[in-house]
Every structure is written in structure tokens, then in C-alpha cells.
């Protein structure tokens, strides 16, 4: 399948995507993941806890095929919004990471999610609700 050309990137001098607010990015990821039937979606608010990202969005797909489909939907939605996401782990499909700058999406198969358990590692203390418009 041939991919359409990417839109111009909306990246700041620091290298972070800037076209959307963090909550808009979380909403974009949530909508794309839910559209592909992603399960057990969790949003972790990391603001001030790490320089890696302000939010992690964690979602599970039932198989590597489904995790790739979820990741592709997130990347397509981000590119349609003018962002330039970075993608890792797509070939294996067990844990796919999509870096959108201030928001990082993690798409796991069930066994990989249980093994890495990012919710335990980063805590669910400040689980955010992404109800941005």
C-alpha cells in the first residue's frame, strides 16, 4: 500500500511538535486508537516528572497485527494534523512507540503491556482525562 506524502512538519526549534495542544494531541491519539478498537486506554500525566514527555497514552491491541493497525491510525491522524511523528517497534508489533513530542503513545500486545507495566512504573496518580475538543 502506497502512503500519501507527509504534510509539512509543524515542529518547533526544540524538535517538539507544536501544531496542537497537549490535550488535543491526547484526544487525537485516543480517537485514532479507539477507531481501531484499541483496549484499556490509559493516559498518564507526566508533567514535571520527566523530560521525555508530558503525557503517555497507553493502549492495548489483541495482536501484533492490531497494534500495527492502531499505530498506523495514530500516525496517519498525526500527519493529517501537520505533525511529524517518530515511530519505533512497528516491525515487531509487540510494543510500538509513537513520539508526538509532548505526547508519546505506547501500543502494546497484552503480554508486552503486562511485562513492561508502564502504569506501575509511572503511576496512575494523575491519570488525565483527555476530553479536549
Overview of this protein structure:
The chain is 32% helix and 20% strand. The chain is built from 4 helices and 5 strands, in the order αββαβββαα. A 5-stranded mixed sheet has the order 1-2-5-4-3. β4 and β5 form a beta hairpin. The N and C termini lie far apart (32 Å). The model is unreliable at 5-15 and 128-133 (pLDDT under 50).
Features:
4 helices; single chain; globular; 133 residues; alpha+beta
Summary?
InterPro entries: Iojap/RsfS/C7orf30 (IPR004394), NT_sf (IPR043519). The protein has 4 helices and 5 strands, in the order αββαβββαα.
Alpha-carbon Rg, integer:
14 Å
| Number of H- or I-type helical stretches | 4
Strand content: 15-25%
* Terminal CA distance: 32 Å
The number of distinct β-strands equals 5
Q: SS-based structural class?
A: alpha+beta
Strand order of the largest sheet: 1-2-5-4-3
- Helical coverage, percent range: 25-40%
Low-confidence stretches: 5-15, 128-133
GO biological process, one term: negative regulation of ribosome biogenesis
Pfam families: RsfS (PF02410)
GO molecular function, one term: ribosomal large subunit binding
Subunit structure: Interacts with ribosomal protein uL14 (rplN).
List the helices and strands and how they pair.
Elements lengths: L21 H14 L3 E7 L9 E6 L3 H17 L5 E3 L6 E5 L3 E6 L1 H7 L1 H5 L11
Parallel strand pairs: 2-5
Antiparallel strand pairs: 1-2, 3-4, 4-5
Helix pairs in contact: 1-2
InterPro entries: Iojap/RsfS/C7orf30, NT_sf
Protein name: Ribosomal silencing factor RsfS
Organism: Vulcanimicrobium alpinum
Amino acid at each position: 500500500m502506497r502512503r500519501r506524502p507527509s504534510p509539512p512538519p509543524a515542529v518547533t526549534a526544540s524538535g517538539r511538535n507544536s501544531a496542537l495542544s497537549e490535550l488535543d494531541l491526547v484526544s487525537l491519539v485516543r480517537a485514532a486508537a479507539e477507531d481501531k478498537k484499541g483496549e484499556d486506554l490509559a493516559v498518564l500525566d507526566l508533567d514535571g516528572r520527566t523530560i521525555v514527555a508530558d503525557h503517555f497514552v497507553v493502549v492495548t491491541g489483541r495482536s501484533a497485527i492490531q497494534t500495527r493497525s492502531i499505530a498506523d491510525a495514530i500516525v496517519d491522524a498525526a500527519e493529517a494534523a501537520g505533525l511529524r511523528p517518530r515511530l519505533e517497534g512497528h516491525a515487531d508489533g509487540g510494543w510500538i512507540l509513537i513520539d508526538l513530542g509532548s505526547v508519546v503513545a505506547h501500543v502494546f500486545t497484552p503480554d508486552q503491556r503486562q511485562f513492561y507495566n508502564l502504569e506501575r512504573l509511572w503511576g496512575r496518580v494523575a491519570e488525565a482525562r483527555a476530553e479536549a475538543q
